[in-house]
Amino acid sequence: MPDRRDFLKASAAGLLGASMLRPIMGQASGAPFKLAASEGEVVFGGEQENATRVMYYNQSVPGPVIRIPQGRESIIQFHNSLDEPSSVHWHGLRIDNAMDGVPGMTQSPVMPGEQFEYRLRPPDAGTYWYHTHMRSWAQLALGLAGVLIVEEDNPPQVDRDLVFAIDDWRLDRKMQFDTNSLGSMHDWSHGGRLGNYITVNGAAEPVFEVARGERIRLRLVNIANARVMHMLFNEPAISVVAIDGQPVEPFAPESGRIRLAPGQRADLIIDMSADPGSRSAIEVVIGEYAYEIATFVYGQQAKREQLLETPIRLPDNPVNQTVLPSEFRHVPLRMEGGAMGGMRSATFEGREMDIRELVRNGKVWAFNGIVGMPQEPLFRVERGTAISIDVHNDNGWPHAMHIHGHHFIHDRNSGMWRDTALFQRGERGSMRFIADNPGKWLIHCHMVEHMAGGMVTWFEVS
Ligand SMILES: [Cu+2]
Fold first, then answer.
1. Are 26 and 141 contained in the same domain?
2. In this model, does residue 7 exceed pLDDT 70?
3. Predicted local distance difference test score (pLDDT) of residue 25
4. Within-domain flag for 166
5. Number of structural domains, the chain?
6. Adjacency order of strands within the sheet including 399-403
7. For residue 281, what are the domain limits?
8. Which of 32, 119, 184, 342 has its CA 20 to 30 A from that of 11?
9. Alpha-carbon separation of residue 241 from 77, 131, 231, 245, 419 (angstroms)
10. pTM for this one?
């Protein structure tokens, strides 16, 4: 990679330069939270006549930021006002299987006009998100996602708690959602649906006013269908304090770079250190360009002259205190298919098909030679079994592997608990965890076009 200074500057909004900061809603704790999915229009930037047709939660893109307490039950009443079935998945939460939101496996699809009550009792605090798990290659692309925060009992002292939900849209010159390319087998067999318009909290290049000396907790969430966000921060006093919701030993990101695959999160502590009146951009690197996706603008008043120096270490969660044993049940997982992948045939719905027939069925990816959800699970174990999924990414593309209902260690010595891990092409690595949450759980690629194209399987904990 070239030095950060070598990137050419470009505008993320590209089509329209105007920026607009959309407020994101909070929630008073205690009362049931109502979440409704519907279709409507939003303005990302510019004129009302350029409003974009989307699917959204509570008429907002992204959906409202939902804040719930750790270890206590919260009720979320989901109402489907779309004219197609949907469901809500709570990404990264280790909750009851019946609340996991996977249609056809943990619940029936929520039909148009119907409701479903999600009862969440998350054991771990941190930054998570929620999104549709029904035709997500279309519904997620159209906007059905939002951020979910599980509050610590004793949150660290910061001046501000900010959320960046980062999304990637494919829009035409009139800012209209490119519907024709939904389901494109070219996208599905390559890197997934990549957009041309990046938003932060549903806005193009939003501006955040900050003050020198201010301490900000910034929660980054990649809610894009398929784009791996290579982010650049131009603030020197940054530490990463959590990954995928789970506290880590604070560390400074190398050269201000943070990489988030689809579904991944990072919590940062930033001590704003530039002079009053200055600005610093947050960029996403695509190829040789660095696109500004948001900007910190320093006000004239400093919050404090001396930066806070005491580092913040988030309180541990139950999951990141898990000690893995030295013996595992090993489960091989070979990922194959895709463009230039050399997969000639695979089994789909119990029958061996050559690649042409698979493509005619909208399938291009396989796990262990099997396309899509198999009848039998990848493995079935008793609760408490230590599992090592030994991944071989045997194709030409990176994949963001997500395990439902559990967190795992990617790379045996990383010490970081994740729910979504990026496997580079050719990579061999493991996802190690204790299968301790009873039920049927998905394992899939979170580039959702890859999931739809066959990269999905499941396991059962009894
Ligand atoms: Cu993938």
1. yes
2. no
3. 42
4. no
5. 3
6. 379-381, 456-461, 439-445, 399-403, 420-423
7. 185-314
8. 184
9. 32, 24, 16, 9, 16
10. 0.94
Cα 429 to averaged position of ligand 1 atoms, centre (Å): 15
Dihedral sign (CA 250, 254, 257, 258): negative
130 and 13 inside one domain? yes
Question: Residue 3: what pLDDT?
Answer: 46
Predicted confidence at residue 1, as pLDDT, reads 38
Spacing, Cα 334 to ligand 1 middle (Å): 12
Neighbours of 141 (CB within 10 A): 30
Arithmetic mean of pLDDT over the chain: 93
**Residue 269's beta-bridge partner residues?**
217, 239
The Å distance, Cα 246 to ligand 1 centre, comes to 23
Ligand 1 centre from 457 Cα, in Å? 13
Give the β-pairing of 370-371 and 345-348. parallel
Q: Distance from the CA of 428 to the center of ligand 1, in angstroms?
A: 15
Centre of ligand 1 to C-alpha 247, Å, is: 26
Ligand 1 centroid to residue 250 C-alpha, Å: 29
> Distance, CA 277 to ligand 1 centroid (Å)?
43
The percent of residues above 70 in pLDDT, for the chain, comes to: 93
Coil, helix or strand for 100?
Answer: coil
Centre of ligand 1 to C-alpha 451, Å, is 7
Q: What spacing in Å lies between the alpha carbon of 398 and ligand 1's midpoint?
A: 6
Quick check: 26 pLDDT over 50?
Answer: no
Which of the two residues, 1 and 332, has the higher pLDDT score?
332
Least confident of 5-19, 148-162, 180-194: 5-19
Distance 402 CA to ligand 1 centre (A): 10
User: Are 146 and 17 contained in the same domain?
Assistant: yes
Which pLDDT score is estimated for 9?
66
Label residue 8 by pLDDT band (50, 70, 90).
low
Q: Ligand 1 centroid to 450 CA: how many Å?
A: 5
Those residues whose C-beta lies under 8 Å from the C-beta of residue 3, and which sit 6 or more positions away, are: none
Question: From CA 321, how far away is CA 116, in angstroms rounded?
Answer: 33
Q: How far is the CA of 129 from the centre of ligand 1 (A)?
A: 19
Distance 397 CA to ligand 1 centre (A): 7
Instruction: For Cα atoms 429, 230, 395, give the angle at the middle one, nearest 5 degrees.
Output: 40
CATH number at residue 457: 2.60.40.420
Return the pLDDT at 174. Answer: 87
Total count of residues recorded for the chain: 462
